[in-house]
Amino acid sequence: MIGIVVSTTDEASQHIGDHLLDVGDFEAVGDGVYRADGFELREFEELHIDLEDPAAPFDDPEFVVVVSRHAGDTGPLLTAHHTGNFGDAQYGGEDRSLAAACPNAHRLVVAALRE
């Protein structure tokens, strides 16, 4: 199962989560918890970068996807990247800590974004 983290305090995260619920065959199974074949979407009040262990509420996920806003100098951007900090944690998380990467899943997401 793939866990999807949506932060209700992040407008972009909420917007993306709403679109996923619209296009997927999700069923509400609890307060802010939705399931579809192979996916579980959970809504959190905390901002995603403030969550200590976003995978913990999910039942043994293969990996966790965090949908969120992303700021940059390029203007509006829809992208995918692995989480973590090579240096100081200026925007959340832990200093010099990287999440386990899922390169094959990442490749599929980036390829789908190109379509």
Automatic annotation (TrEMBL):
| Cited PANTHER family | D-AMINOACYL-TRNA DEACYLASE
InterPro entries, sorted: DtdA
Query: According to its UniProt record, what is one Pfam family this protein matches?
Result: tRNA_deacylase
State the name under which the record lists this protein: D-tyrosyl-tRNA(Tyr) deacylase
Which Gene Ontology molecular-function terms are recorded?
A: D-aminoacyl-tRNA deacylase activity
